[in-house]
Amino acid sequence: MDDNLEEGGIKKTEKRLYSQDPGNLERKRSQLSGVDYEEKVTWGGEEGLNIKNMAQTRKKFPILSLILTLSFVFFVGATIFATYLYLGSTNVISPDNVDISVIGPVSVKAGEEINLQVAITNKNNTALEYVELIATFPGGSKILTNKVNDTQYRKNLGTIKPNEIITETIKTALFGEENADREVIVAIEYRNENSNAIMEKETIWKTIVSSSPLSLIFDMPTDANSNQEITLNVKTISNSKDTMRDVVLNVAYPSGFIFKEAIPKASSGNGVWFLGDFKQGEEKLVKIKGVIQGQNEEERAFRVIAGQRTNKDSTKVEVAYASSLKTLVIRKSFISANLAFNGNQEDTYVITDGQSVRGDIEWENNLPVNLLHAEMNIKLIGDVFDKSSINSSTGFYNSADNTIVWNKSSGGLPDLISSGQSNRLSFSFSPLPLLSGKRTIFRNPELNFELTFKGFKSSETREADAIVETTLKKKIKISSNLQVSPRALYFSGPFKNTGPLPPVHDNETTYTVVWSVVNSSNDVSDVAVKTTLPPYVRWLGVSSPNTEAITYNPLGGEISWNVGSVKAGSGITVPAREVAFQVAMVPSLGQIGQYPSITADTIISGHDEFTGSNITYSRKAVSSQLTSDPLVQGSSADSVK
Q: Does 26 have pLDDT greater than 60?
């Protein structure tokens, strides 16, 4: 083998580096080749650097580019084919080739019957199958044909052939307020041949209600003084030639309005009236009274709506036929007066039987001028006033007409009151007792007060223009006197009792406890009586009558009687409600010489239906002294032995 070939590349390089001949350092450089070679052996191998063992590596065609190109071609082809199927002369149905037109009046009278002409055109080359016409109406509409429910019309049209036009007439009556917009959605549902997919096309028809079947005349003052009583008059009138069914009136009050009464009475709450049916031209009036409160120059808005409800259980107008909104401005009164009972300024104040009342009247001259010949009077109205208790440190009480008067002559008010001047007047009284020895009752007792404050403006020359006056009405309601009378018996009552009498320590004696419920003037609901047993007394589990709901809880030893409702006069004009139960007592050595309690305090509670207040009354514990048993005599009534 040639020495040059055997000599490795490293040896040759080493010789050139250390050679004294500069020519050996020169190296010829060749042009780069465009062909890649792969070296088969490492340096110093047996084969050396053999050009035959170098293989040329050629570039391969990119497969990914081919796949992307084919995908793009397929997508373009599929798009062209789908467009052809959709728009071309094929059996595929397009919703764009289905037309729905609705012809109806531009405006309608509420409640008047109208005809909607619906035309459906199939411009497809294939029939529409299982076609259903659906019309959805606004709430309160009257659908006269093919009615599904209160708001939907539906009719099966079968098959619509290619290029066929089908027309249908829908009879209906629309309702609403005058100038209200109304919309009807008209749609069809259909299927393509050999397909279960449901397709839909719809359009909207619009109209305006030109006149309402009901009119409202809403009359109320445009301004009022704070705490002044005002009246709202709401008149509902039928304009429809047909009978209007189940008309409802809603009245919305602003803050600061205190509802007093209405004629007729409200059907629900204080702002809902079920006016019933209206014949053509019929009128119905609702008169509402209340007191308006607020600051000077404040506005209060009242809104009334008349119409129909779609649900019989609803109290709200859901289809409005007429509405009205009016505002009232609160003005500061020329002269003001406010009345408070025991410091309470509410229009209705609730007291208990026998409670004393102090009345305070605060007055002020709000005029920019003096008030002359001022006079204040308050009229006391009611059967339960104790006239002998009425007292006023100033002023004069006239028992003949039950009026207290304050003026220059009677005292309490000066003849001239300067602008901005204010002061206070006071009086006191007590009601008659609701429970007395007489077998009579005061049914739903209340006390009414009518206050008048008047005088003359010093700046006016005409007497009619000079008079200024303010009035005020308030009332007091008296809660019913609900009481429970507990008593312990041994010889009397529905049960036979055993054991020593008087009781002996460490020995058991049984007793009968009787509860009697008395109620004076008002019906009381949710009445309950409760007590607890001491540790040395046990419940024997018997009661009479067995129709009364009396229970015992051993955890805490509580006895409860669910009385329920108790009518006014119970125990006075009609027999009292009673229940009896039996207990056993074992006194201890430390109770010798005492009268141990058989029960703890007895508490009765209930809800007064007239005053709306809750009542609670308590009686002291029942002891073993047996003062209520007429058959216990002599030493039997003694203390524990």
A: no
Considering only 28-32, 487-491, 496-500, which range has the smallest mean pLDDT? Answer: 28-32
State what percent of residues in the chain have pLDDT above 90: 39
Looking at residue 457, which CATH number applies to its domain? 2.60.40.10
Same domain, 225 and 207: no
Q: Is 138 helix (H, G, I), strand (E, B) or coil?
A: coil
Note whether 611 and 498 are same-domain residues.
yes
pLDDT greater at residue 418 or residue 80:
418
- Cβ count within 10 A of residue 135: 25
Of 179, 211, 243, the last residue of a domain is: 211
For residue 4, what pLDDT is reported?
A: 45
Is residue 525, in this structure, part of any structural domain at all? yes
Neighbours of 268 (CB within 10 A): 13
- 342 phi and psi angles, rounded to 5 deg: 50, 35
User: What count of other Cβ atoms lies within 10 Å of the Cβ of residue 218?
Assistant: 19
Residue 604 scores a pLDDT above 90 = yes
Q: Report yes or no: 279 and 243 within 8 Å, Cβ to Cβ.
A: yes
Distance CA 511, CA 486 (A): 13
- Token representation of residue 390: 């009425």
Residue 32 lies in a domain: no
- Region 273-295 average pLDDT: 89
Instruction: Based on the fold, state whether residues 388 and 527 are members of the same structural domain.
Output: no
Annotate 21-45 with b (16+ C-beta within 10 A) or e (fewer): eeeeeeeeeeeeeeeeeeeeeeeee
Q: What's the domain count of the chain?
A: 6
Q: What is the pLDDT of residue 486?
A: 94
Indicate whether 112 and 234 sit together in one domain. no
Nearest-angstrom CA–CA distance, 131 and 93: 13
Whether 623 contacts 534, CB under 8 Å:
no
Q: Are 515 and 529 in contact (CB under 8 A)?
A: yes
Check residue 45 and give its pLDDT.
44
Kindly indicate the confidence band of residue 9, based on its pLDDT and cuts at 50, 70 and 90.
Answer: low
Kindly state whether residues 14 and 101 are assigned to the same domain: no
3 state SS for 141-168: CEECCCEEECCEEEEEEEEECCCCEEEE
Cβ atoms of 441 and 520 within 8 Å: the answer is yes
Q: Evaluate whether 219 touches 200 at the Cβ level (below 8 Å).
A: no
The pair of structure tokens assigned to 103 is 């012809």
Buried b (16+ CB within 10 A) or exposed e, 272-293: bbebeebeeebebebebebbbb
Report the C-alpha gap between 541 and 546 in whole angstroms. 11
Q: How many C-alpha atoms does 612 have within 13 Å on its Cβ side?
A: 5
State the residue range of the domain holding 78.
Answer: 59-88
> How large is the average pLDDT for residues 181-187?
88
Closest Cα partner for 125 from 176, 161, 74? 161
Residues 330, 224 contacting (CB under 8 angstroms): yes
Q: Are residues 608 and 557 in the same domain?
A: yes
CB neighbour list of residue 471: distance below 8 Å, 6 or more residues apart: 228, 229, 450, 451, 452, 453
Whether 347 is covered by a domain: the verdict is: no
Q: Would you state the pLDDT for residue 587?
A: 92
Q: Does 88 have pLDDT greater than 70?
A: no
| 66 & 114 share domain | no
Does any domain span residue 617?
yes
Regarding whether 359 and 460 lie in a shared domain, the answer is yes
